């Protein structure tokens, strides 16, 4: 079945007895037993809830996974995966990475004795040089936040297989509509469902999708024990958002391409980072492993004043954190998403006071360009 149909009808929801087309919201924390030793399949909502279960089946279907768990946030999903590891374990991760992920690795997980090494995950030799007996996993974000680096997932999967490591891929920026890491050799996929899957900036969610039954069972045990479970109302919002995923991703991508090309013509813009530009270093890799380039881009201005003036002047585009919604949002990574990363590391990665990150929404392309034009004037 085509993904454009699966986002609408996926998840194997049984026909409602009352004929409801929309999945009902089961606002119940607990479920009654038919009798001693009997169950309806639902006992307690920390473990399972009918609305959330439909959502989980849907996301697993979209990612070609064995199972998915729906968590309260994207960071909760990453924390859930983090519980697979023990003190002394070592994880290699993409050097350019969402600041929240870095913060979680270096504070919560490091406190629990897990060790980390950043690396350019496009360099297989550099990855292998970091592998040691304690290494248990490689964590990849692609495209990366905010510099839009792209990793060849299949190549990293080959390294992981050679050394018996888990490959975990954050697929938030492209969503399962454009990219399916499990089919490229990954073991686990994580998403911030707050972003493209929900798509309307109105619900927080996160997902862990597993590619094997063994991993699915381990993640389910952690998920139910710790209590990462997404509530039924947010689960319903996520289901509703996913129904338009295909339309939103296509519309936003078309605008992102046009905006990236336009930005390159602007004298106050000194660099544009978008995987869909043919001269992007990993354009060929993107074209091979994904069905699209997405709608996230970053650009660098000529001065700090230009960057801050633009942030103060935009009106159709909103100056706000987050991404992936129908509204276009512009973010200042230096002081927002990556503020907790040490300054020398930020600058080494290109995250300076002149860098801006743009999440392109579904507004008319001409209106977005006009807004950027007046803000850059």
Q: In a nutshell, what does this entry contain?
A:
The chain has 377 residues and is an alpha/beta fold.
Please give the largest β-sheet: 7 strands, mixed
Please, what is the average pLDDT?
96
> What does the overall shape look like?
globular
Main β-sheet, spatial strand arrangement: 1-7-6-5-4-2-3
- The counted number of beta strands is 12
The CATH class assignment of the largest domain is Alpha Beta
Structural class by SSE content: alpha/beta
Write up what this structure looks like.
With 377 residues, this protein is of the alpha/beta class. The chain has two domains: 3-242, Aspartate Aminotransferase, domain 2, CATH 3.40.640.10; 246-376, Alpha-Beta Complex (Aspartate Aminotransferase, domain 1). The chain is 38% helix and 15% strand. The strands form two sheets. A seven-stranded mixed sheet has the order 1-7-6-5-4-2-3, sandwiched between helices. Helix 7 (175-178) links the parallel strand 5 and strand 6. Helix 2 runs parallel beside helix 9 and helix 3 (74-82) packs parallel to helix 4 (99-111). The protein is globular, with a radius of gyration of 21 Å. The chain starts with a helix and ends with a helix. The model has no long low-confidence stretch (mean pLDDT 96).
